[in-house]
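Internal ticket - ligand job 319, flavin mononucleotide:
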Amino acid sequence: MTDLAGILADLRIPVVGAPMAGAAGGRLAAAITAGGGLGLIGVGNVATVDQVREQCGLADGQRVGIGLMCWSLPQNPALLDAALEVRPVVVSLSFGDPRPYLPKVHDAGAAVIAQVGTRAEALDALDAGVDGLVVRGAEGGGHGRGVVSTLPLLQQVLDLTDRPVLVGGGVGTARGLAAVLAAGAAAAWVGTPFAASAESLFRPELKEAVVAADTDQTVYTRAFDIAQRFDWPEIYGGRALANDFSDQWAERTDALEAAVTDELTAQIKQARVDADLSLAPVYAGESAGLVDRPRTAAEVLDDFASFRDHLRAAQRWLD
Ligand SMILES: Cc1cc2nc3c(=O)[nH]c(=O)nc-3n(C[C@H](O)[C@H](O)[C@H](O)COP(=O)(O)O)c2cc1C
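stdout (structure tokens):
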């Protein structure tokens, strides 16, 4: 089976590109691996087997991983089989119980990682037998838990296990990467900066919005899922750029549950097609405020590469 610790230790830049449905397709994942990190393809809750195969084909034979959402797999278990066809080195089984899928992924020779958002979730994933954890704090982009921030969770979870711990949520620059590596993380798990990169599946309007946003312009909410009538378990909201829709509903999700109509659902879905960013969700974390210009995935990784300078500077504390 894949040696996860060994793979991460051998990366030129200890950055794993988070699986991001609608952003991290095969092209982005391959570009991250080619740039010295490890890219993962994101498979969403409404993906089809054909789409998974198409995106895996775009990875062009590069070594990549793939990320699936456990809560939605029972509705379409064929997605896991399609994902394994790309012979991923790592499979992320997040947002739900990974136990039913672990043996199949291990038989396929891939390591399993799970994103966790609380200490209890970390203990449960370790008990399930995952090979590594991603500590994913509330400041992260896209879906996840919204209850604990990255740094407290990282410190807590590093004391729970010797298995590799990666860190997602708010790691957007070389300084952040140096900080989590110094704490003991095996690598960073980076989403938002890559979602805005040239190779991402995000539409140009969405990338521009991420570049323009500051750290205080995101919101964690279930409102977009309620409006689209997605069956995300209630404990998982999503962090997105704040917009007119979230201004109106993010704090009033109970009222939205009661008020949602077919018309509203159709409106939000159409807004996504039209890139109408006053209504459509643009999933991004607080590190949107750390993305200040359009970059390729290789440029994102090159910017992260100066983490070694920050680690060296911190060495003065050893003298
Ligand atoms: C646009 C977008 C889509 C995402 N989609 C997924 C997904 O399909 N599966 C998943 O496990 N995580 C997904 N995430 C969450 C990421 O895996 C990761 O936890 C997060 O991006 C890390 O925080 P950061 O955005 O601050 O780097 C998504 C994140 C973003 C920004």
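Auto-summary: The longest strand covers residues 111-116. DSSP finds 16 helices and eleven strands in the chain.
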